[in-house]
Design brief:
Distance between the termini: 11 Å
Keywords: Hydrolase
Helix content: 25-40%
Domain Beta-lactamase-related: 8-312
Largest sheet: 7 strands, antiparallel
Number of strands: 11
Protein name: Beta-lactamase family protein
GO molecular function: hydrolase activity
Number of domains: 1
CATH class: Alpha Beta
Shape: globular
Order of helices and strands: HEEEEHHHHHHEEHEHHEEEEH
Number of helices: 11
CATH superfamily: DD-peptidase/beta-lactamase superfamily
Organism: Furfurilactobacillus rossiae DSM 15814
């Protein structure tokens, strides 16, 4: 396979500049894969080297790997449509305009301040989320938020009568043979995230809403190894008609916003290919996870880091990300 020399050099900058403790990444080119694990699992309170097979808190990659995939299975089965209204499945919801498409494309404009949000018990947090207002930009622009995919999780629970994380495990992780992926990781084999006043977060979800909502959270909470995420990426890029059909996965590289011009697909974000001939599916996670998947060229990149260690105030990583996108997509287009 091609060496993706420039992409690997940009990733190496993360380690050389001490932006993250370590990296696990996979470059996928059709049936060929290059996987590398470098650096440390943690710096504080003591140094620990990164080992192959360790589990990362995927954060918002949970949205696309798990929740979106499970929802689209129901669409394929004819049990619901992305243009169905949220209130059909979640009667506590108050605005009849909001569709599943709005939630999946982050165009619902649901937002608002919840006092003491991170201290609320799960039942009260759910009630508060379902009382949030719909803003003036409804279906006019995209505003990324966890709320949409939390609500999609509630839709899945209404259909299956099971917790969303159990649904993801049974209908996505097991069929794809993502054997180490889990919502209940072994802390000793998990890459630590933030060092807080309460101690090191390790083997527990970093996102506070997900920590409160637990098994009922569809926006975050999944832990997985590089091997798991490579398995997912290779399936996504393939022409296999299992878990989701090829036709559905092809939709995920097209603009699916209500106006079809806001640059988001169902669950997935979109990047333009470097030659501007097509769109590429991608997503990021707060903890430092990135996946870029080009179904046209059958090439992909999975990058797993714990950029929130020792502190989430790591703006250098956020500033670095666009250089990775540009470099990888340039190498894809360059052949």
């Amino acid at each position: 396979m091609r060496d993706y020399r420039q992409t690997q050099r940009v990733i190496q900058d993360l380690l050389d500049d001490q932006i993250v403790p370590g990296v696990s990444y996979a470059l996928i080119d059709g049936s060929e894969v290059c996987q590398k694990v470098k650096g440390d699992a943690q710096w504080w309170p003591e140094h620990e080297p990164l080992k192959t097979g360790m589990l990362y808190d995927l954060a918002s990659l949970t949205k696309v790997v798990g929740t979106t995939t499970a929802l689209l299975q129901l669409v394929e089965q004819g049990q619901l449509s992305v243009d169905d209204k949220l209130s059909q499945f979640v009667p506590e919801w108050h605005d009849a305009r909001v569709s599943l498409r709005d939630l999946l494309t982050h165009t619902s404009a649901i937002a608002g301040y919840i006092p003491h949000r991170n201290e609320l018990p799960a039942k009260q947090l759910k009630q508060a989320l379902l009382q949030l207002p719909v803003g003036d930009t409804f279906e006019q622009r995209d505003h990324y938020t966890d709320i949409g995919l939390i609500f999609i999780g509630y839709v899945l629970e209404a259909v299956y009568q099971q917790p969303v994380q159990q649904i993801i495990n049974e209908h996505v992780l097991k069929p794809l043979k993502m054997s180490a992926a889990t919502f209940t990781p072994d802390s000793s084999n998990s890459v630590p995230t933030e060092l807080t006043q309460q101690g090191l977060i390790r083997g527990r979800v970093h996102d506070p809403k997900a920590a409160i909502l637990g098994k009922h959270c569809g926006s975050a909470g999944l832990f997985a190894s590089l091997a798991d995420m490579t398995t997912f990426a290779q399936w996504f890029l393939s022409d296999r008609d299992d878990v989701l059909t090829v036709k559905t996965r092809d939709l995920l590289r097209t603009d699916q916003t209500p106006t079809h011009d806001l640059g988001r697909s169902l669950g997935w974000n979109l990047l333009a290919s470097s030659d501007n001939t097509h769109l590429v599916s991608f997503h990021t996670g707060f903890t430092g996870t990135i996946i870029i998947l080009d179904r046209v060229t059958k090439q992909g990149l999975v990058l797993l880091t714990n950029r929130v260690h020792p502190s989430q105030k790591n703006h250098r990583f956020i500033e670095w990300r666009p250089s990775l996108y540009r470099t990888f997509l340039d190498e894809v287009a360059g052949g």
